[in-house]
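Task: fold both queries, return tokens.
Query 1:
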Amino acid sequence: MDIYKQTRVDIGAQNPDSPYDKVLDPSKFQINYSVLYPGIVKAWHRHKYQDDYFCVIKGNAQVGIVQDDTPLPGLVQAEKFYMGEHNPSILHIPAGEWHGLTVVGTEPAGLLYLVTNEYNTAKPDEERCPHYSFVGNIWWLPENI
């Protein structure tokens, strides 16, 4: 499989074959960029109404996703996704899923992400848990990939 093959998708168009796709209102979504530094875990948080789309365009990162609502280590199934220069991809994180990420390697990573709702400073759509919730500290340590 050629991981560098380009795929073009109209993110504003609905795909009737997918239960996850929905029409995005360009007047409400935002595209943001964040620099992530090695040794820092940015987790966990989730949104009640907002979907996120992550794309690591510089460096590499490990993204964690948890669908369960119980913040106790060892009692939930957490998924790891590796993305970035060595695995170009876009990760869709539906509303309600806990998510977080950390850099893989010694260089900062650049995260380009689209959110389906404009940020509301008066009433942020965000709930947070510490990074060791759900999985414990060891889960975020580097591993051979």
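Query 1 returned. Query 2:
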Amino acid sequence: MEPLNYQWLHFIIKEMTHKRIAQKLVRMVREEQRLQLSIDDFNKKTKKNSNELNLIIKKIGWPNIEKVGKQGAEAAWLIAQHSDGDINFQKRCLKLIEKEIEKNAIPRHYFAYLYDRICINLGKTQLYGTQLKNKPNLNIVPYPIRLRSKLNERRRLYNLPPLDVYIKLFKQFNNK
């Protein structure tokens, strides 16, 4: 008698595990965004989320759309974005995101946002103009951008709208 092939069982278990991971990632981000946290509480929450994401990455690699669905992948990216207290972690995530983009496994804009976030955290100028700040007169402007003359070409490569459209959309979304 030929032994039974249980490869399909591994697939089902893997899918269930990744679905749970996706749900966990989404829950982590929702909690972070839902809570009105002091800066200290926010930093504690993002540190906890960073640690959780790091464990997930060790287990399954970068949580891409195939592994955790669109919402789970976006949640993982947001957690990396918000991990400002651990720039080395953000840099590791950026490398993983870059590899996933090469495989078309996640949206291209994830790279641009995280790259710019890391630049701003390091006190450098951003490249894609994704990071904005409020000026005292409630005017929203981008943090300094290098090579501004080619900015919208770079933004287009990462599926981002032109900067002026982005700022207008940001203001509308935030009622500014």
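Both queries returned. Flag for query 2: Strands lie at 132-134, 140-142.
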